[in-house]
Amino acid sequence: EVQLVESGGGLVQPGGSLRLSCAASGFTFSSYSMNWVRQAPGKGPEWISYVNSVTGTTTYYADSVKGRFTISRDNVKNSLYLEMNSLRAEDTAVYYCARRGTTVFDHWGRGTLVTVSS
Amino acid sequence: EIVMTQSPATLSVSPGERATLSCTASQNINNNLAWYQQKPGQSPRLLISGASTRATGVPDRFSGSGSGTDFTLTITSLQSEDFAVYYCQQYINWPPFTFGPGTKVAIK
After folding, report:
1. CB contact under 8 A, B34 and A105
2. What chain B residue is nearest to A105 in terms of C-alpha separation?
3. Is A108's Cβ below 8 Å from some Cβ in B?
């Protein structure tokens, strides 16, 4: 069974940093591209970052986080990461890791809540 | 960036009735459209890809149609577990992958 378990969320002050992790199991992690998708309270999902399979050398970011967030993966540890810096109030959301199957996000974790507030 | 819109924002339906949800893309996306279902407190769940192909385990009362810019998700004979928010998403032109704002299917 495919499982994605996020961790690392919490309360952080504006301007602060946080590192999210996603532990994957039940599939060959290195074979899949992975993504972070966030959802602000009462809003729809917002894709924020992508990393390619195997090498993890190709990354993409939404304009809203470009230059502040960094995605990475460790195929030995079957883990996905999101380093978040210069956090703003508008970054408050539930952050999901999502596996990209052939084309679509076919499995999602349960999410971790990030709250940016003073 | 391709903008996705959905209508209506809320759809009130009685159990056993049919629900028809619409999704429109700001430009031609062929059939590169997915639908997701999200229940309160849960993560989104993939229902349909390729505009009309149901994901594994999705009941056949869910069907998707459309191509180009206009798409429809139809739920025939709504069950209690189908009351949720539904999102469409395009994946032809990325980054970014873009989602619609969602349609809430509520009990009438």
Report:
1. yes
2. B46
3. yes
At residue A2's C-alpha, the angle toward residues A30 and A17, to 5°, is: 65
Q: What is the 3-state secondary structure (H, E, C) of B6-62?
A: EECCEEEECCCCCEEEEEEECCCCCCCEEEEEECCCCCCEEEEECCCEECCCCCCCE
Write out pLDDT tens, residues B44-61.
999 999 999 999 999 999
pLDDT digits (tens, 9 = 90+) for A47-86: 999 999 989 899 999 999 999 999 999 999 999 999 999 9
Q: What is the dihedral of CA A65, A48, A71, A57, to 10 degrees?
A: -110
Nearest CA in chain A to B89: A104
List, in order, residues 6 or more apart from A88 with CB less than 8 Å away.
A14, A116
Min Cα separation B48/chain A (Å):
9
Q: Verify cis geometry, omega within 30 degrees of 0, for the bond prior to A41.
A: no
Contact B74, B19 (CB under 8 A): yes
Joined together, the tokens standing for residue A6 give 């996020």
Distance from CA of A109 to the nearest CA of B (A): 7
CA distance B2 to B93: 7
